[in-house]
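Hi support team,

I've been running sequence recovery on a batch of backbones for a student project. Most finish fine, but this one hangs at about 90% for roughly twenty minutes before it completes. I'm not sure whether the input is malformed or the queue is just slow. I've pasted the structure tokens below so you can try to reproduce it. Let me know if you need the job ID as well.

Thanks,
M.K.
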């Protein structure tokens, strides 16, 4: 029952069985919870918050998380993990009914093993 602070397990889950990653929690401004029903691991993604000097160029960050939260609330089964990039510290989600893509910069990925 360990907690691993690395994106490696999340990347592996996505690579091996991407369709079993289910979004379970979206809490603005920075927390996303994902459960893998295949290997029963829980992945907690903390989204990077823009620094004050970056706010002008990244003012869509807050809007993006709120929009992802609205999609998740309206139709959680249709929001899927589309890409996990541990090299560039980003995760991409796609909402099928809204036809929207959310690319988020990651600060930390924790994997909880049951």
């Amino acid at each position: 029952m360990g907690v691993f602070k690395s994106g490696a397990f999340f990347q592996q889950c996505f690579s091996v069985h991407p369709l079993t990653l289910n979004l379970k929690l979206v809490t603005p401004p920075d927390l996303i919870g994902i459960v893998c029903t295949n290997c029963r691991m829980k992945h907690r993604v903390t989204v990077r918050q823009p620094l004050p000097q970056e706010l002008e160029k990244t003012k869509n960050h807050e809007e993006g998380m709120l929009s992802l939260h609205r999609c998740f609330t309206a139709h959680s089964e249709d929001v899927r993990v589309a890409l996990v990039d541990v090299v560039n510290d980003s995760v991409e989600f796609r909402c099928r009914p809204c036809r929207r893509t959310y690319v988020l910069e990651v600060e930390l990925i924790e994997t909880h093993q049951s």
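--
Follow-up from support: It reproduced on our side and the slowdown came from queue contention, not your input. The chain has a mean pLDDT of 87. No action needed from you.
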